[in-house]
Amino acid sequence: MTVNELIDQAQALTAAALEAVAQASTSDDLENVRIRYLGKQGGVSLLMKSMGQLPEADRRSFGQVVNAAKKQVQDAWDARRASLGAGAAPRPKNQIDVTLPGIRREVGRHHPLMQTMEEVKSVLRGMGFRYDDYTEVEDEKYNFDYLNTPSWHTSRDSHDSFYTEQGHVLRTHTSAFQVRAMQAIGKPPIRAMTSGRCYRRDEIDATHFPIFHQLDVIAIDRDICFADLKYTLYRMLTTLLGADIKLRFRPSYFPFTTPSAEVDVYYRGRWMELLGSGMMRPEVLRNGGLDPAEWRGFAFGMGIERITMARLNITDIRLLYDNEAAFLKQF
Q1: In the chain, what are the domain boundaries?
Q2: Which CATH number does the domain 112-328 belong to among 3.90.1030.10, 2.60.120.560, 2.40.110.10, 3.30.930.10?
Q3: For residue 10, is pLDDT > 80?
Q4: Is residue 97 a contact partner of residue 91, using CB atoms and an 8 Å limit?
Q5: Which pTM value belongs to this model?
Q6: Using CA atoms, how far apart are residues 215 and 331, in angstroms rounded to an integer?
Q7: S-S: 215 plus which of 154, 162, 195, 272, CB 3.0-4.6 Å?
Q8: Sign of torsion, CA 283 289 291 296?
Q9: Which residues make Cβ contacts (< 8 Å) with residue 313, sequence separation at least 6?
Q10: Residues with Cβ within 8 Å of residue 77, at least 6 apart in sequence
């Protein structure tokens, strides 16, 4: 488009704008005219943007035409506004109009996994357990060796666990905190817990994901026994899931506890495997700097995804990691 054609377009736009200003009968009509011709996406602004199509030699003359058109329309608009009694100058863009109807803002909320985790931590704090965060990148000795896991155990293979180039392991369970907690706290009684992400090389499906969350608990004192473990689990789970649940302990094996038990809960009409537990092995206590002849303790670890899915009727673990807003708003 030539400069003369653009100038003709500017003159026609100016005439149309002046006619619209003259025809405006209310301040709302006048504001619409301002937006249509003088706003950021208005006709005059678009004309100014079209200047880039012109050769350098024609831009100055066309710019003068557009500026004159803008001033002419603005002057006419100001005069018409005054005649309509619109009052003071236009409201600044950043000023809040308190006469506008209220708009309810969406309130942020915890992810379902974090909701469950915080509830579990709250219940255990009420039972006297302290909470501390521990590192996710662990030394093998804390993740495996100190927990009585032999060097030939398959869980230490690279096809089961993630290792860094420096030889550290991404913790495969929060049980890695046990010896660190004993070393940090010192002399019992000890009632400690931690929670967070763990990592294993699992194939992704409806019930498995390579990243998952666990909560681990230990209690150490002179006279602790398996009955104390059962009582703690019962109190915690009835608070979380309801007083009518039933627990089932099945003999199991873990390198760092003996005797050991898998714990199932009868919840919503079916048995659900929930956690592993047991009495701490003497080797683990000794690695934590405690004499197993004097001290005893129990430990248990629980998957947060599993209990979250049970409580919220979620059937696919992948939904917890997709971060779909429509799904998360349900909780």
Answers
A1: 3-83, 112-328
A2: 3.30.930.10
A3: no
A4: yes
A5: 0.66
A6: 21
A7: 195
A8: negative
A9: none
A10: 21, 30, 33, 34, 38
